């Protein structure tokens, strides 16, 4: 079963990752919660690719919704690539999309998912406009 993601997304980053022994659960495959960690790591790596930190002092990204579709089991050992895309930039938010593949198996998607990210003023606990540098990254 292949679950399709929006066609209007734009690829922005590939993040190589290694499955660690501790990523597995008692059934011998990667635990479902770890897939979210893989997606988070790709997102932070992308954000840090042009900046030292993924935030501006007291403002930064906050995930408000996320999901994952588990399509195939992943076991240790494995080398992965998390392919990240973005879409739908708005005034304060944008969408992120992920496809997880094994290195050496291009096009075979083991999981896919997404997250809605909003830009927040941490002191005020309120969404604010995306900063210009983030808008430029989203617009490509």
Automatic annotation (TrEMBL):
CDD domains: 4HBT (cd00586). InterPro entries: 4-hydroxybenzoyl-CoA_TE (IPR050563), HotDog_dom_sf (IPR029069). Its EC number is 3.1.2.-. Keywords: Hydrolase. Pfam families: 4HBT_2 (PF13279). This is Acyl-CoA thioester hydrolase. GO terms for molecular function: hydrolase activity. It is an enzyme of class 3 (hydrolase). It comes from Comamonas odontotermitis. Transmembrane segments: none annotated. Belongs to the 4-hydroxybenzoyl-CoA thioesterase family.
